[in-house]
Amino acid sequence: MGKGGENVGDELVVLYSHLEYACRKIAALVASPFNSALAKTSSSAAAGSAERDKPKPLDIVANDIILSSLKNSGKVCVMASEEDDAPVWLADDGPFVVVLDPLDGSRNIDASIPTGTIFGIYKRLVELDHLPLEEKATLNSLQSGTKLIASGYVLYSSATIMCTSFGSGAHAFTLDRSTGDFILTHPNIKIPPRGQIYSVNDARYFDWPEGLRKYIDTVRQGRGENPKKYSARYICSLVADFHRTLLYGGTAMNPRDHLRLVYEANPLSFLAEQAGGKGSDGKVRILSLQPVKLHQRLPLFLGSSKDIEELESYGDVQQKVNPGYDV
């Protein structure tokens, strides 16, 4: 994969080549008619957690694929995954830290709805090298989003697309299935300053706070700062909803304390900002938040800068009422 004209260090290039290899394997896995059978072979690897959703078997397979690739790269000291209770220490001399959601949206996979891999990359905090392994693994993984040196997602859909940033713009690469190469297809992505699409689960409307209901009502009627009436597009797959938002503008959001700061919000907010957009929890910039625990959850609003600013101006947009939803 080319790097969109950016000057990327050799060690990061090696890391990305191993990430690409892992994502090609995952792309083949999710597209396979045998993926359910393949997943069952690794279902015993699932680690339970009272704080998180019970992992689907394919999540675990994808996690194992990426873990193996990062270990083989020799460039990663620690990997922290949404599917693991604690970070996995890989190499004392690895210069990078990788945080990731290995297969976002996997609950929809049986309906062939797009899924994705989300990742963020930090430099190892060498000043922590003297600490006990468990402590330095955790602290390296809890870095602020402002310290990200790269992030990205891979969308597994009609095409397999890797969108990534190394800190100077966002670029998307499409997998050429005939050669196995990721080809630069969307250089220097710029999210429109304002869009005409919002993406949220409208069925939760009556659980929303007044500010969020008022904002959505206003833009649907074309009475907001943008005089055009907004349309709803909601896939319920974060990578897919964000990818569309990145290309067309508007907002993708989940107002509940549901999405993970470390694995989802920080990497995608980094990408949004690199494309000229914004990532917010409804009140403040996502990247300004300091994670305090690995599986910390929060509301997430991503998209066009003017749309996010207008939404924030309504004040009360974070949903604090969280009744149990079966779907």
Automatic annotation (TrEMBL):
Keywords from the named record: Carbohydrate metabolism, Hydrolase
Segments forming domain Fructose-1-6-bisphosphatase class I N-terminal: 8-187
A single MF term (Gene Ontology): fructose 1,6-bisphosphate 1-phosphatase activity
Fructose-1-6-bisphosphatase class 1 C-terminal domain ranges (all copies): 191-314
Pfam families, sorted: FBPase, FBPase_C
EC number, as in UniProt: 3.1.3.11
UniProt-listed GO biological process terms: fructose 1,6-bisphosphate metabolic process; fructose 6-phosphate metabolic process; fructose metabolic process; gluconeogenesis
InterPro entries with a match to the protein in the record: FBPase_C_dom, FBPase_class-1, FBPase_N, FBPtase
GO CC, any one term: cytoplasm
Catalytic reactions of this protein: beta-D-fructose 1,6-bisphosphate + H2O = beta-D-fructose 6-phosphate + phosphate
Family, per entry: Belongs to the FBPase class 1 family.
Record's protein name: fructose-bisphosphatase
